[in-house]
């Protein structure tokens, strides 16, 4: 979703007044490990992530991690903008409940649009009984997974190498799930990242031809089952706020919202 012509959400609308900040910090940390950038730089508590060859906003953004770190906002943003330009990127800030209110006010006053509004959801796995077996096992072929993900997501094939590089760089244990149909080929994919007691559901996608046929439910169940059997107590995932079908699927499975985030960038 893009909404560059829309006014940005206020700090309260992102949910900073009601969320549990320790939970946000932990999910942010595991999220960075689950989707690693090729270049990582800290400016105070601002985490600057850049990745050449892949357009993911999560991999190319400034991520403030401490609401009290708001010194020299303008100077530091200008410095970050130069770093982004060196990588051929436009400066982008990922605004979460950890973003200092002063920084949000700075972006508001400068008229920075908001886009890519997303939700972070979580599900308690500890009390769910998935049984001891697995109906669907993860695959080992990263290239095959990448091909399927790009095909289902209708993304450019040229980004395959970058996607494989990101997956190969994930340090926690991963499970690559791929559903296929003999006639239409790949139908659904998900990447599960097991990090201590958490399981992150990434790259979850279902082909248009098989939506509303139970494929998404089956894929989600297989992903959660694998994470639980590996020892995860809680599952988490990120989804764009305008993806109503996916959000409905996740809520029916028991996921609930933990916090929201949005991207901000200077007016072009």
UniProtKB/TrEMBL annotation:
Entry-linked InterPro entries: Acyl_CoA_acyltransferase, GNAT_dom, Rv0428c-like_C, YpeA/RimI_acetyltransf
Matches recorded under SUPFAM superfamilies: Acyl-CoA N-acyltransferases (Nat)
Domain N-acetyltransferase intervals: 134-268
MF annotations from Gene Ontology: acyltransferase activity, transferring groups other than amino-acyl groups
Record PROSITE patterns: GNAT
CDD domains: NAT_SF
Any Pfam family matching the protein: Rv0428c_C
UniProt keyword annotation of NAD present: no
Keywords linked to the UniProt accession: Acyltransferase, Transferase
PANTHER family in UniProt: ACETYLTRANSFERASE, N-ACETYLTRANSFERASE DOMAIN-CONTAINING PROTEIN
Protein name, as recorded: Histone acetyltransferase HPA2-related acetyltransferase
């Amino acid at each position: 979703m893009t909404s560059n012509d829309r006014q940005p959400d206020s700090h309260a609308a992102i949910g900073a007044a009601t969320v549990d900040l320790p939970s946000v910090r932990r999910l942010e940390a595991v999220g960075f490990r689950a989707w690693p950038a090729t270049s990582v730089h800290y400016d105070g508590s601002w985490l600057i992530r850049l990745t050449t060859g892949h357009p993911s906003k999560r991999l190319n953004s400034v991520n403030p991690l401490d609401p009290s770190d708001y010194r020299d906002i303008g100077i530091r943003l200008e410095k970050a903008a130069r770093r982004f330009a060196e990588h051929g990127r436009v400066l982008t800030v990922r605004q979460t409940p950890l973003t200092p209110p002063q920084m949000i006010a700075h972006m508001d006053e400068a008229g920075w649009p908001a886009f890519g509004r997303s939700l972070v959801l979580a599900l308690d796995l500890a009390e769910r009984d998935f049984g001891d077996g697995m109906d669907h096992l993860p695959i080992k072929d990263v290239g095959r997974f990448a091909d399927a993900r790009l095909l289902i997501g209708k993304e450019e094939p040229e980004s395959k190498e970058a996607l494989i590089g990101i997956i190969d760089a994930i340090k926690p244990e991963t499970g690559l799930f791929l559903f296929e149909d003999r006639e239409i080929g790949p139908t659904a994919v998900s990447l599960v990242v097991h990090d201590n007691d958490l399981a992150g559901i990434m790259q979850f996608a279902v082909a248009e031809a098989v939506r509303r046929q139970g494929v998404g439910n089956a894929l989600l169940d297989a992903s959660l089952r694998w994470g639980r059997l590996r020892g995860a107590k809680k599952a988490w995932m990120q989804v764009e706020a305008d993806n109503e079908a996916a959000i409905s699927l996740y809520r029916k499975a028991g996921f609930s919202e933990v916090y929201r985030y949005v991207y901000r960038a200077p007016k072009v």
